[in-house]
């Protein structure tokens, strides 16, 4: 999920609000979070839904709406006004059905490495808003997974 304004830090600035609504929706509409990472302007998540329920779109709608409620509206187009949208979130999002264990591992790794990819931290373990820390606590990943980008900065020759 991505914010309409990619230049801000709304999601981490209001991280407690996002966590609260996420948990509320997770309790009401049951799903398991396999991996998640919240960045300043977007978030990534892998969910497992009950076998008889594939309505992830409704869950995202509830999370986005719950998060947006109470926040000031962004400047909006006529179509956003007509649909009563605040203009906080982009309308579209990317979805992917995980095909197998290798695909799952690749996506979990992508999610956990995303803060480093975006230059927010040099090490995955330094980003606080990620399920990476639960993977370390369970022993599924070492705390130094992903390396340290400070070690490679400027080491490409003279």
Keywords:
7 helices, 2 strands, single chain, 8% strand, 158 residues, mainly alpha, globular, 41% helix, two-stranded antiparallel ribbon, Alpha-Beta Plaits
Tally of separate helices:
7
Rounded to the nearest angstrom, the radius of gyration is 17 Å
Largest sheet: 2 strands, antiparallel
CATH superfamily, please? Transposase IS200-like
Into which percent range does the helicity of residues fall? Answer: 40-55%
Annotation, overall tally of beta strands: 2
Write out the strand line-up for the largest beta sheet, numbering strands in chain order: 1-2
Explain what the structure shows.
- The protein is mainly alpha-helical and 158 residues long.
- The chain has one domain: 2-Layer Sandwich (Alpha-Beta Plaits).
- Helices cover 41% and strands 8% of the residues.
- The protein has helices spanning 10-13, 15-28, 56-68, 78-82, 101-117, 132-138, 149-152, and strands at residues 32-38, 43-48.
- The protein has a two-stranded antiparallel sheet.
- A hairpin with a 4-residue loop joins β1 and β2 (43-48).
- α2 (15-28) packs antiparallel against α3.
- The radius of gyration is 17 Å and the shape is globular.
- The termini are far apart.
